[in-house]
Give the backbone structure.
Amino acid sequence: MSQSTDISYLRQLVQIITENVDAIERLAYEQGVTHPTIDDLCEPTDARETFTLQPDVIRASTLATSAASQLVATLKLPNLVLRDRANAYHVPCALRIASETGIVELFREAGPKGMHIKDIATQAKVEPSIIGRVLRLLATHYIFKEVEPNVFANNRISSAMDTGKARSKILSMTRKKVESPAGFNDVVGDKYLDTNGIAAFVEQTTDIYFKSSACLPELVIANDYSMTALQKAMQFDGTFWDFLNKYPGSLQRFQSALGAWNRLQPTEVHAFGFDWPSLPEGSLIVDVGGGDGTEVFAIAQIAPHVKLMVQDRDQTIQQVTTPTWLGSQEKSRMIDSGQVTLLAHDFREAQPSHLVNKPAVFFMRHVTHNWPTNEIIHVLKHLHAAAPPHCKLIIADQLVPHACPDTQTAAGIKRVVHPMPPAPLLANLGEANAAMYSLDLAMTLMFNSQERTLGEFKEMTEAAGWKIQEVYQTARGFFSQLVCTKL
Ligand SMILES: C[S@@+](CC[C@H](N)C(=O)[O-])C[C@H]1O[C@@H](n2cnc3c(N)ncnc32)[C@H](O)[C@@H]1O
């Protein structure tokens, strides 16, 4: 087409970037802060970092990053884009090396002048040339900084992975790792405890998900779902949960990574959406697969007049939920008063008879995405059988948008929706929203499961006797609540 059309397309993208950077700078000016640069260190309590977490700042930066990514994809030659995407596997490989050799902690101790690769090699007991090249690849992707030739230091992104622990401690724990038959490293020790969870998230992803991802194409091409990619990669027969039970370091890493994931979510995902305070006095909310009870605690605070139950697997209730609740004065008071109860129950079984016809709400957050559709339908049918006529089922999970507009599927559903991104951005904000699609495929690697579109949620809930009435979406993401009633 004509040159002017191309220019107009590029300029539309540039304009979105300019408008949103202007908005961020205006907000920063009003609040007397500046936006951090990539060369700063990530200090979570720093006013500049807390500024970046404000809803208006996130909204503007999401639009700007969406436009910037689309601009790069437009300006870069197609074969270079494909080459970069096909080679992207080097990044998780390098990230895992850096995290597991304690480089981030080493650089924290070295300070802003950084450290020469020969000194890194001596301290981390690795070969200097390879560690230099690993760090340069990461610095090229804006993780770490090469301050002078062969001298590297932390930057804003690498420092976000800091466990805060002494490097010597990290290294001694990493060396105690236990090799499983599949070569999986089960780090035994408290490496991930009392951290922000980001190192756990990075290592979980770059270790077992990365290996599993390499096995997925063969399974998909062979149309073979008799095993998960994780089972194939790890040469493990059991479920993902069995895997965590078998390797204690892996369970610790997963839980810590989950904490990081929860913290990455905008704060409004907690107890948002449904009007919890509107429930009548004494109503029972059952959080099915409630984990450590984070959400029950959030709801208990805004609706102190309702009763809440955390339901989860026996191991989780015993090893995670109970210690979490008894370890906090505020939470144990809720247990003592009977406001909150903890119940070990396998949700693949019928709900216990003492709960039949009692709950006002069955709530499930980040649970349906762990299960293949046919299996979760079975669970939802059990909830349906135990639900009184006016009971609500509230599913809180990612709602996957198509990469194009969809005006059809939502007909008849009361929706709180995101405004459509401005043209020419992709309807799902493209790379700015890539984490959702990574999570979607991670579900496939672990469980042969998935994140779902609205259409997929409709089919799934209707097959179990539930109908989606309302959808709430967070302002800053596609984390959603689907409020269903009995059909
Ligand atoms: C991703 S976690 C979500 C936890 C919590 N709802 C949250 O949002 O933080 C999934 C939860 O489902 C639980 N789960 C898995 N299989 C289960 C089963 N068969 N019965 C009950 N809970 C189960 C896990 O133990 C875990 O706590």
Summary: The two ends are 52 Å apart (CA to CA).
